[in-house]
Amino acid sequence: MELFEYLKNNAYPGRGIAIGKYNDEIVIAYFIMGRSPNSRNRVFRKKKDILFTKAYDESQIADPTLIIYNAIREYEGSVIVTNGNQTDTIYRHLSGNSTFEAALDEREYEPDAPNYTPRISAIINNDEYKISILKRKDKECERLYYTYKAQNNTGHFISTYDHDGDPLPSFSSEPLEFKIEDNFVEFSHKLWASLNKDNKISLYVRFGNDEIIFNKNEE
């Protein structure tokens, strides 16, 4: 899959996680999109090793539930990336000598009927990464886990939705493999440019120790 083309042709993948490796550096990207004023009233902020969502205009926030959360946290060399407050559930389990999978077994898709937004999560540890999606299927929670050995210039992408719709259709395939052929600066700007200009909100990209945040509300 060509990641940038895939996203250019997809008006609303929702929230997305891309994990991979480029020239021996771990690659992490996470973006959020939104259709409602409440969702769009957000920015990314980073403090120490935590990336979190924050209201851009505090006076205009209607409901912080499901939209304000820690998206990335680190624990003893492992990096957790998710689209919701399951980030903290995973962190709590790791700090208690439990596992990524055990943490997510406590959780399920978001209670935002009729979309029932999936919870997507990833954890990166040295040269291995795991990706998970918890989504609604036949009124039950389907729990899918995928494990990958990091390979140079290769990544995997997952998002909450396949595309725009009403209700929004949950991501329906395995994580999509893509090639990482651009350096940090090129990849970051191409990824931001590939997201729908009306629906994109924020993007975080990290290659090794290099990182960047894009916030549409602050452009």
Which tags fit this structure?
219 residues, alpha+beta, Glutamine Phosphoribosylpyrophosphate, subunit 1, domain 1, 7-stranded antiparallel β-sheet, 6-stranded antiparallel β-sheet, globular
List the helices and strands and how they pair.
Blueprint: H1 3-8, E1 16-22, E2 25-33, H2 37-40, E3 42-47, E4 50-55, E5 70-75, E6 78-82, H3 86-95, H4 100-104, E7 119-125, E8 128-137, E9 140-149, E10 154-159, E11 176-179, H5 184-194, E12 200-207, E13 210-215
Question: Please, could you describe this protein's structure?
Answer:
16% of the residues lie in helices and 41% in strands. It is of the alpha+beta class and 219 residues long. The chain has a single domain (3-218), classed as Glutamine Phosphoribosylpyrophosphate, subunit 1, domain 1 (4-Layer Sandwich). The chain is globular, with a radius of gyration of 16 Å.
Give me the CATH fold name. Glutamine Phosphoribosylpyrophosphate, subunit 1, domain 1
Name of the CATH first level: Alpha Beta
Distance between the termini: 29 Å
Rounded radius of gyration (Å) = 16 Å
Shape: globular
Tell me the count of domains: 1
Please name the fourth-level CATH homologous superfamily: Inosine monophosphate cyclohydrolase-like
Mean pLDDT: 97
